[in-house]
Design goal:
The chain has 81 residues and is mainly α. A two-stranded antiparallel ribbon has the order 1-2. A hairpin with a 6-residue loop joins strand 1 and strand 2. Helix 1 runs antiparallel to helix 3. It is elongated.
Length: 81
């Protein structure tokens, strides 16, 4: 049994969370991105901290996109009126 956490957006591109699992994945991803950006000065001096934060952000967003795309009921495509 495959339960979907997201549904395709009515307008635009992407998906919207519809279950608590979808919202949890969304909130955790936002939390990781915000924390990595806030902790960039602590992670290293100069560019190394910013680069580390950027890598963490990219990995978190990529994982979110893979999970949300695989758990969407339908395909991702551009939708307009």
């Amino acid at each position: 049994m495959n339960t979907y956490w997201f549904k395709p957006r009515e307008y635009g591109y992407g998906a919207t969370p519809v279950t608590w699992e979808g919202w949890a994945v969304t909130v955790v991803t936002v939390f990781i991105v915000v924390m990595a950006s806030m902790l960039a000065p602590v992670l290293g001096q100069g560019l190394s901290g910013g680069f580390t934060a950027l890598v963490v952000d990219v990995l978190a967003i990529a994982a979110f996109l893979l999970i949300s795309r695989s758990k969407t009921d339908g395909e991702w495509r551009w939708r307009r009126r």
